[in-house]
Design brief:
With about 50 residues, this protein is mainly alpha-helical. Helix content is about 80%, strand content about 0%.
Length: about 50
C-alpha cells in the first residue's frame, strides 16, 4: 500500500467522521470543564449567593 493511497482513503467519509467525532470530543471536554468549575464555585461559596 502506497502512502498516497492511504491519504486518499482517509480523505473520504472516514476522515470526515473522524473529524466530526474529534470536534464533538473537544466540545464535550470543554463543557465538562465548565460544569466542574460551576460546581466548584457553588461548593466553595454556599452562603454567598449573588
Amino acid at each position: 500500500m502506497e502512502l498516497s493511497s492511504l491519504f486518499s482513503s482517509l480523505g473520504g467519509s472516514l476522515g470526515d467522521e473522524i473529524l466530526v467525532w474529534a470536534v464533538a470530543a473537544v466540545a464535550g471536554f470543554i463543557c465538562l470543564i465548565a460544569v466542574v468549575n460551576v460546581l466548584d464555585m457553588f461548593m466553595d461559596n454556599p452562603n454567598e449567593m449573588g
